[in-house]
Amino acid sequence: MRQGGTQAAANAMGVGQPLVSKLLTSLEKQLGFKLFERKRNQLAPTAEALLFHESVARLLDGYRDLGREADAIANTQRGNIVIAAQPIFCDTFLIGAIARFKKAHPDVTVRLLDVGLGELLRMISERSCDIGLGITLEAESYGANVKPLGRCEALCALPIEHPLNKPGAIPLPRIRHEAFVELPPASPLRTRVDYLMQTINVERNITAEMRTLHGVCSLVAEGTGIAIIDPIAELLIDHRRVATKPLIPTIEWEIALFAPDDRPPSNTAQAFSETLQQDIDMLKRNGMIS
């Protein structure tokens, strides 16, 4: 189409002219229509040839686009990722991790779902998310691939003027008569605290419940009660109004990445996990987790 004759085409291709003529004749037989007319020692494309050329050009452009798309996917520059995470992580460091990931991977679509641990594990089991970020207090019985990221110890959050705001850890029996602000009964952390308090024959006075630790800490700041919280919640606390103290005995768990156990993570999910690790390392340096 561009060379105007078989000899010029042969020169451009680096082959002999008879081979080009043979290939052209063979293609016309396969297509069922004539591609060129000879005019003044040149080959002029037929109307059918021009239409066919447009179709071939579009097809070749499509193949080139597929190649670029494959390269982008391989380099984690295209695709999508669904992340299920417990509210405490959505309210704190996870937002910054997603923002940094998007700057490095602008064409990757990120969907973040704020869910409880039970829902997170259900989504992992049903393969409706790529990765989950949660805690390991109740994850042992689920068929998920669990990668621990860091160890946490629960803290007691109390109003800054509270009598228990003294140096040293707080023994659990010391808080038996306190008013508590708590997460819902299905929360793994509340379940663990309830169990420990039962072992020392303490029936707690739960004065308020909130769905998230953000709400719990806000009520503590208002003097509604004390709370036993995830150490990550320190990122949400106004330390002019709320103090945090370690507990005796300790209540421990791990932050972990959850993934379906029957398939490897995508390159995109792996790239996000590496970004997230930077935040985990920062939390360790700040002493929030170990």
Automatic annotation (TrEMBL):
Belongs to the LysR transcriptional regulatory family. This is LysR family transcriptional regulator. It comes from the Bacteria. The keyword tRNA-binding does not apply. Keywords: DNA-binding, Transcription, Transcription regulation. Residues 1-46 form the HTH lysR-type domain. Coiled coil: none annotated. The keyword Metal-binding does not apply.
